[in-house]
Design brief:
By secondary structure, the protein is an alpha+beta fold. It folds into two domains: 2-59, no CATH class; 70-238, no CATH class. The protein has six helices and four strands. The chain has helices spanning 2-14, 17-31, 37-92, 113-120, 129-132, 181-188, and strands spanning 136-137, 203-208, 221-226, 234-238. It has a four-stranded antiparallel β-sheet with strand order 1-2-3-4, with helices on one face. Strand 3 (221-226) and strand 4 (234-238) form a beta hairpin. The longest helix is centred in the first third of the chain and has 56 residues, at 37-92. 28% of the residues are buried.
């Protein structure tokens, strides 16, 4: 019996629950031939205990795997954003980030890092309207391949016009070829969206603007996050 129990424990460590149950059933049928009803009852009770104990551990492993997968995807966003920054610095004379009409303009609702970090402390769910409205969807909130979860409040970036309908200049000396943040992100990933491993996950971002000129210039900063839990699943990069 000891050998049989060790075999079951080992199987539970390496197979999914459905396979485990199948193997246990098969073993029980073969093992219990010639065994007494009492022995069968004892073994069955122990099986139930082992399975119940293993389920929470398996769930934790799966969640941990999803978190690591999401973090890896956030790193990919940062790598492409860095490439975009360096390319625009070469072509436009000053580096900017996806969604920025110019390096001095924000994308989203933050103008300084302190405000962003303060909000992130409590930004644990995408249903937070006050904070959610400050964030932009990376690949588009209505993207059919990576839809924004119901109940979220994220926005799609829009191009700031050079001049508004009243003739007021809104974007002085801004790059002619700029596009919306979503279009620029999609271009960076060859129209292959990154999809969060979480059921209600969704990749979002904000850009804190740079400022000044010459030797006093400051570069913009980017924060990307997974809407599943932005407090714990976010990355910030400075240039």
């Amino acid at each position: 019996m000891a050998y049989f129990l060790l075999l079951i424990i080992n199987r539970m460590r390496n197979k999914n629950n459905q396979s485990i149950l199948h193997q246990i059933s098969f073993k029980l049928i073969n093992t219990c031939k010639g065994q007494s009803l009492a022995e069968f009852a004892v073994i069955t009770a122990m099986m139930a205990t082992f399975i119940t104990t293993a389920l929470p551990a398996l769930s934790n492993v799966m969640e941990s795997g999803k978190q690591q997968k999401s973090i890896d995807e956030l790193d990919k966003l940062l790598v492409q954003a860095k490439n975009f920054y360096e390319t625009t610095a070469t072509l436009e004379g000053r580096g900017r980030l996806p969604g920025q009409d110019k390096y001095i303009y924000p994308v989203g609702g933050y103008n300084d890092l302190e405000s962003l970090l303060l909000d992130l402390e409590t930004f644990t769910t995408y249903t937070n309207e006050d904070i959610g409205l400050k964030w932009m969807s990376v690949f588009g909130k209505d993207n059919p391949k990576a839809l924004m979860p119901d109940g979220a409040f994220f926005q799609d970036d829009e191009i700031r016009p050079d001049v508004d309908d009243d003739g007021v200049i809104k974007c002085r000396n801004c790059p002619v070829g700029r596009e919306t943040g979503t279009d620029e992100w999609l271009y960076l990933f060859s129209n292959e969206e990154l999809i969060s491993p979480f059921q209600d996950g969704h990749y979002i971002y904000v850009v804190i603007p740079g400022g000044n000129t010459g030797e006093d210039v400051t570069a913009p900063r980017l924060c990307v996050a997974d809407a599943e839990n932005p407090r714990d699943l976010h990355k910030i990069i400075e240039f």
